[in-house]
Amino acid sequence: MLLSSLVELVSTPLWLVLTYGVLVGIGNGVGYLPVVALTRKWFPDKAGLATGLVIFGYGGSATFFAPVKAALLELYGLSATLALMGVISLLMGLPAAFSIRDPPPGLTEHYSRFAKRRVVLPKRDTPPGEVLRTVDFWILWLSFTLVSGAGLLVIGHMARLAESRGVPTELAPLAVSTFSLMNALGRPPAGWVSDRLGKFGRPITMTAFFTAQGVLFYVLAALHALPAELFFLVAALLGFVYGSALALYPVATGDFFGIRYLSENYSYVFTGWGIGGLLFPSVGGYIADLTGGYDLALALSGTFSVAGALMCLYLKKRLALYL
Q1: Of 93, 113, 133, which one is at a domain's C-terminal end?
Q2: 52, 189 Cβ separation under 8 angstroms
Q3: Which of 74, 96, 113 finishes a domain?
Q4: Is residue 44 located within the same domain as residue 137?
Q5: pTM for the model
Q6: Is 250 exposed, middle or buried (0-12, 13-18, 19+ CB in 10 A)?
Q7: Pick from 89, 119, 69: which is nearest to 259 by CA?
Q8: Cα distance between residue 40 and residue 12, in whole Å
Q9: CATH number of the domain encompassing residue 314
């Protein structure tokens, strides 16, 4: 980000692409995946809740930093804002990175008998090369792609979607904020519920939440004129259930394939989120332009969400083979 702040001194726009786009993007991913895996290692008896809280910080930080960055841009301009954010990242991120470490061996031996019953760990840690050859990995990956892609379609088109459903133009940005806020808030509760439901809690919770996501898409597809309050309610619920995916899939990956290689294994699962983000918003926008509205795109998103939920229901049966 400090390099990005030189954008007004460098004549080519590729500078911003390479620094802010490529380098900050890589740093963002590197900061996300290992921390999620590490959380799973430290709290095997409350893996869903702990991961949900960490991912809440990952997504919820945007709610805090967005107005801060807007104020800095207004006061100091682009270069100074990027430089300040780079300094903040160093002062906050670097000490935190140096402070984290793997848990000691035999961590679960220190837990109570009740806590040990809630630990979900497979019989063996499966290395990435072997994971990629299993059908269960690809079902988990495809489920994540469908569920997250459908949610990312809404994120990319929420303002226009709100206007198409009768929300006044001046209130459309509020719909985006509502979805984003609930997207972050949905992560800890989903993780907590999955912990409480026992060793099959993850696929059960995923099936329920993503089926609800599909139903909400169908509701938006069917209703063309909504009071703003009702639209915001549907957007909030949709953000809540969609946000659960980023808390549940990393923990589910550990449930199936263990925690020793979790960073690598989940990095492969997480490519589904990236592919969903590339395909769904653009294809959804194309369908909306082609048909003159979002009805078909929303109905397809609902169908994909339910398909992803049914895959999780199937994975519930498969999980017994790993535990």
Answers
A1: 113
A2: yes
A3: 113
A4: no
A5: 0.85
A6: buried
A7: 119
A8: 43
A9: 1.20.1250.20
How many whole angstroms separate alpha carbon 151 and alpha carbon 147?
7
pLDDT of residue 305: 95
- Based on the domain organization, do 184 and 85 belong to the same domain? no
% helix / strand / coil in the chain, to the nearest 5? Answer: 85, 0, 15
Total structural domains in the chain? 2
CA dist list (Å): 104 to 32, 110, 155: 22, 11, 40
Q: 174: number of CA atoms within 13 Å, CB side?
A: 10
Q: Could you identify the residue written with the tokens 């300040």?
A: 84
Residue 156 and residue 262 share a domain: yes
Task: Assess whether 200 and 241 both reside in one domain.
Answer: yes
- State whether 192 and 232 are in the same domain: yes
**Residue range(s) defining the domain that contains residue 305:** 122-319
| Average of per-residue pLDDT values in the chain | 87
> pLDDT category, 111, cuts 50, 70, 90?
low
193/291 same-domain check: yes
CA angle 303, 308, 311 (to 5 degrees): 125
pLDDT digits (tens, 9 = 90+) for 181-197: 888 888 999 999 998 88
CB 251 within 8 A of CB 47: yes
Nearest of 22, 55, 63 to residue 36 by alpha carbon:
55
Token pair, residue 77, equals 């301009």
The full DSSP string for 227-272 is: -HHHHHHHHHHHHHHHHHHHHHHHHHHHHHH-STTHHHHHHHHHHH
Q: Are residues 157 and 23 in the same domain?
A: no
Of residues 258, 249, 263, 251, the one with CA closest to residue 123: 258
Residue 205 is which amino acid? T
